[in-house]
Amino acid sequence: MTTEPALPRLGPGPIPARAGIGLRAEHYDAVLRDRPPVGWLEVHSENHFGAGGKPLDYLERVRAHYPLSLHGVGLSIGSTDPLDRRHLAKLKELIRRFEPALVSEHLSWSSVGGRHLNDLLPLPYTEEALDHMIARVAQVQDVLGRPILIENPSSYLQFVESAMPEWAFLVELAERTGCGVLLDVNNIYVSARNHGFDTSAYLRAIPRHLVREIHLAGFTVNRVDDGELLIDTHSRPVWPAVWALYRQAIQRFGRIPTLIEWDTDLPELGALVDEAQRADAILEERHARAA
Amino acid sequence: MRGLRELQLGFAAAVLDGADGDFARHVRGAGSSGARRLRVYRNNAALGLTGALEAVYPVVRRLVGEDFFRYAAARYIARHPSRSGDLHEFGERFPSFLESFSPAAALIYLPDVARLEWAYHEVFHAAGHPSLDVAALARVPAERRETLRFRLRPAARLLESAFPILRIWQVNQDDHAGDAPVDLREGGVKLLIVRRDNLDIEFCALADGEFALLRALADDCDFADACERAMTAQPTFDLPARFGRHVARGTLVAFRQTRE
């Protein structure tokens, strides 16, 4: 005789063309207390998959004040294992309850043979993988009854099998499934440095109408004997070179809702808000120029 | 599909099992660079999964130290890989794994401390539930009460240990003041771990009768049977007072009549 939980008082709906921040448990109290002047919030969907308790209670309370985006990290959409119906059902229930304006997943896979690596693993950019991703994204959108966004990942290796650049793969996926693109500018920078491609070419290859959201975060540099690898750690402020690439992206795509992500070595909430304001200033510049 | 599936299975084997085989042939710019690039994914997976265990088992980690914990976590990950895209589901078998993990054998209380932490984790994420309908319970005629069956709050767990795991847990909290060594001869404990309506999680050390009563009710015994078990466990048990308290405090959230 479980009674239906009361529906949350839902706050504003659409995601404004402003900067938002990724909300993590460590900042729940500070966000409710300070109500920082950020345009919207994004949470990891799986952090709210539990049946009850604080994660849902806090989300309900912050949802009353901010537009919300749900960002999935565990659906393993690119896996060749069957899609996890239970995972998808939990996501669907979360969407029903919190009515997020955006729902996103990754251009990646994270499990195979029933084993989860719980990491965003790279796909080979082949025709076969493209057909597979198209079928899977379509399946997810069908179950959820709404379009999703797909984010470009950071990657540390490229497969010799890849027959097209990541951007071509992503664009084709979006055009053929109707999903939007969540463009992670930091990930473009990280992957470009790790694999030696041109970041501007990446931006130019993405049609303007596909980009619905942008992510920004900080990477770390992993130095090894014969070179360096950039690792997408979300553990520090956005690097100057990534701000420059972001400015370029905003010039091309216009005022796109932009998220500051920070997941490890979390600073005080204020540091994220500062980063968001920096992104807001760049969005405003674009607005001034467009006017 | 064959190419993609094989590539993913090979990647997982290389990352999770360290079975690189000839996987490097799939990596552009192979050789030492390929191995290094694969190592990033190996580190990421290990960090992520170990981090998930650390989040659920901070006291176990503190008891064994960081290096030992990482070693145990690596063995656990290899033996019981993550089966869900939701990391909160990872680590359920860590207590029983520790029981058979010989390097930790000297810490005989460790598996039960881990059980306590997993129970806390479950209670933290469990469903809420409205309170028991006390008025409806009061309307049940006295002669029918014995056949009632009660339901424990979904956010409640009962745990019994031969070791003083509650004290061990308490003195290993960050905010614990003072240096209070725990003497294992203090003996065991019977615990109720419960999340109250305000979302605070409480640990209640229960007397034998109280624990037997709740255990029996949780196991779906009828009220008469549960009372008998409680009184057998502790003949001096003040059953009406304790039962009333668990109704009032919401440990019990529902009841139903059982047909004769």
Task: Offer a few descriptive terms.
heterodimer; A: 291 residues; alpha/beta; TIM Barrel; eight-stranded parallel β-barrel; two-stranded antiparallel sheet; 9 helices; 19% strand; B: mainly alpha; 2 domains; 12 helices; 5 strands
Summarize the structure in words.
- The complex is a heterodimer of chains A (291) and B (260).
- Chain A is of the alpha/beta class and 291 residues long.
- Chain A is built from nine helices and twelve strands.
- Chain A has an eight-stranded parallel β-barrel with strand order 1-2-3-4-7-8-9-12, surrounded by four helices.
- In chain A, helix 1 (28-34) packs parallel to helix 2 (54-63) and helix 4 (127-144) packs parallel to helix 5 (166-177).
- Chain A is globular and about 50 Å long.
- In chain B, 51% of the residues lie in helices and 11% in strands.
- Chain B has helices spanning 2-16, 32-56, 58-64, 66-79, 94-99, 110-125, 134-139, 142-145, 165-171, 208-218, 223-233, 239-248; strands at residues 148-152, 156-161, 189-195, 201-205, 252-257.
- Chain B has a three-stranded antiparallel beta sheet, sandwiched between helices.
- The termini of chain B are far apart.
- The mean pLDDT of chain B is 94.
- Chains A and B meet through helix 2, strand 5, strand 6, helix 4 and strand 11 of A and helix 1, helix 2 and helix 6 of B.
Give Rg of chain A in angstroms: 19 Å
Task: Provide the structure class of chain A.
Answer: alpha/beta
Strand content of chain B: 5-15%
Oligomer: heterodimer
* Gyration radius of chain B, in Å: 24 Å
How many domains of chain A, as an integer? Answer: 1
Give the overall shape of chain B, derived from the CA principal axes. Answer: elongated
CATH class of chain A: Alpha Beta
Number of helices of chain B: 12
Low-confidence stretches of chain B: none
**Number of E-state strands of chain A:** 12
Low-confidence stretches of chain A: none
- Identify the most extensive interface between protein chains: A-B, 55 and 51 residues
